[in-house]
Design goal:
By secondary structure, the protein is of the alpha/beta class. The protein contains 15 helices and 14 strands. A hairpin with a 2-residue loop joins strand 10 and strand 11. The structure holds 5-hydroxymethyl-3,4-dihydroxypiperidine. 5-hydroxymethyl-3,4-dihydroxypiperidine binds next to loops.
């Protein structure tokens, strides 16, 4: 393990700049790290199926081993504890605990999560549990997946069972991670599982995700569960590429598709009229009572922020034209966008507590003499933590910040080629090594 290099000391943000109650954490998701794809009765998920088509994943990989977190739980819990974080955000693999997505529970799967929440507790780390981070049981996809309204009740049953078994040892529960990704990338562009390319289905899926969120919140509260409940959205401020009226209009519509399509129903009880009009016949079928069901009171909202976006009506926007550096994903590094996003949401909505539930970057990360000197990631994290602080100073009630990600992992259609971790994973040996960014985060959290 290396030392924090001296130039890092010049970075300005300090833990003491934040309230003592602020939650500092790291985040992961089940499919991206667990592996053990065919172990202990886990059922197949749509991502297992999606990975079977080599062209879907950049390096033709899959999640069968991933970081083998399932078999290295204690080591990984010690790793998390070594960072000094207050909280760990993770997701439950639905097919691990209920292989078919309905019916029988898999006790071995629940045992794993029992050991996870107990292990966190023993180490004094709060558990931030996410119910759905994209690994749908394949058996439910075979019945239409999120396009079949029946799935809302299946999700609700699953959510209640997870809370019944684990709820006493978690700090918060979140229903969905990034419904825009599931809806659009999974069902309109088809670059993520289940790989459909149909706009009408995509928006029906989006509606069912939100409806299932509302149903689950209501059912969990009916169990007298008192802890904070929320949802996590991927959000970006969207700017027109120029002040030309068509670019301004496109930016407004894109904001409707990415931000307002989720924020409005959750916090105002209605879909944005401009997006409904743009969808025409592809607008989702909404039953009487659905919108009230979706707009359950939220205890918190999670914001996943990586970059900003530009909208251009006439041509493809060249992100290089901003002149700012890009991450390995090709995403512009623009920390002020996080402040702009948070203050805009604060102005437009009556927000519940906010957590930055994901923030981070993929960088090249060469391992040299056993160390990864990822100054680019370190600066990225520093600047975004500072941007969070700036938003808080302007009145946004941000309660915590989670680095994406604890460790390098399966980056969906990019496979293992893109590394987001503050801990390096050598995929041949599965050895974990703290990068400079992890050492810096550790020193920041020491205060
Ligand atoms: O790795 C993903 C994560 O699963 C969801 N949010 C974005 C991350 C980086 O692409």
């Amino acid at each position: 393990m290396g030392k924090v290099s001296s130039d890092i000391q010049s970075l300005v943000i300090k833990k003491s700049d934040f309230p003592a109650s602020f939650t500092w954490g790291v985040a992961t998701s089940s499919f991206q790290i667990e592996g053990a794809g065919q172990q202990d009765g886990r059922g197949p998920s749509i991502w297992d199926t999606f990975c079977e088509t080599p062209a879907h994943i950049a390096d033709q990989s899959n999640g069968l081993v991933a970081c083998d977190h399932y078999n290295r739980l204690d080591e990984d819990l010690d790793l998390i504890a070594s960072l000094g974080v207050k909280a760990y955000r993770f997701s439950i693999s639905w097919p691990r605990v209920q292989p078919l997505g309905q019916g029988a529970w898999n006790e071995a799967g629940f045992d794993f999560y029992e050991r996870l929440v107990d292990g966190l507790r023993q180490r004094g780390i709060e558990a931030f549990l996410t119910l759905y981070h994209w690994d749908l049981p394949q058996a439910l996809q075979d019945q239409g997946g999120w396009n079949n309204r029946d799935i809302c009740q299946h999700f609700c049953n699953y959510a209640c069972e997870v809370v019944r078994r684990l709820g006493d040892r978690v700090a918060t529960v979140c229903t969905h991670n990034e419904p825009w990704v599931v809806s659009i990338l999974g069902h309109e562009t088809g670059i993520f599982a289940p790989g459909l390319k149909d706009r009408k289905i995509a928006y029906q899926v989006g509606h069912h995700l939100l409806l299932s969120h509302g149903m689950a919140l209501q059912a969990i509260r009916a169990m007298s569960f008192q802890k904070p409940l929320g949802i996590v959205l991927n959000q970006s401020p969207i700017y027109p590429a120029s002040q030309a009226p068509e670019d301004v209009a496109k930016a407004r519509l894109d904001d409707g598709i990415v931000v307002r399509w989720y924020m409005d129903p959750l916090l105002k009880g209605a879909y944005p009229a401009d997006v409904i009009e743009w969808l025409g016949d592809d607008a989702p079928e909404v039953h009487a009572g659905d919108m009230a069901q979706i707009a359950q009171p939220l205890d918190f909202i999670g914001v996943n922020y990586y970059t900003r976006n530009f909208s251009c009506a006439s041509q493809t926007w060249d992100v290089a034209s901003t002149g700012n550096p890009l991450t390995e994903m090709g995403w512009e590094i623009y920390a002020p966008g996080l402040t702009e996003l948070l203050t805009r949401l604060h102005a437009d909505y009556t927000l519940p507590a906010v957590y930055i539930t994901e923030n981070g970057g993929a960088f090249k990360d060469p391992m040299v003499n056993g160390q990864v000197d990822d100054q680019d990631r370190l600066a990225y994290l520093h600047d975004h933590i500072q941007a969070t602080h700036t938003a808080m100073a302007q009145g946004v009630d941000v309660r915590g910040y989670f680095v994406w990600s604890l460790m390098d992992n399966f980056e969906w259609a990019s496979g293992y080629e893109k590394r987001f971790g503050i801990v390096h994973v050598d995929y041949a040996s599965l050895r974990r090594t703290l990068k400079q960014s992890a050492l810096w985060y550790q020193s920041l959290l020491k205060g």
